[in-house]
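This week, look over our next protein:
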Amino acid sequence: MSLHWTIDPEQGLVSVEADGNVARKEVEELLDEMAAKEALGYRKLFDGTKGATIMEAEDLLALGARMRDYHARGAMGALALVLPPDKAHIVLPILGLLAAADRQMRIFKSRGEARRWLSSLAKPQVPA
């Protein structure tokens, strides 16, 4: 599996790291788990520095549309994307859909910068 994640309800944080070629099924599994654990409103750190994908544009757009559907469920947590400049083009097809959410989103070159930014934001209210 190329996508590894932790969902931390105490911190209100989802941390995701890509390592290798990420498939659509893996992203769908992540989305399913975040929805099941009511973590859509958590802050999210996605580190794609070691990741890649062989997904087609239609897969990326379908994932983007699914993520956008989640926006109707309530507030989305802030999103910090860690991407080297040569890999940013991989997510460009869905960035517009992600940016449409009522949430903060930024792209960073390092995980440390992304963590500092997320830490500066208020911890989301976690359902009891």
Observations:
- The chain has a mean pLDDT of 85.
- The chain has one domain: 3-120.
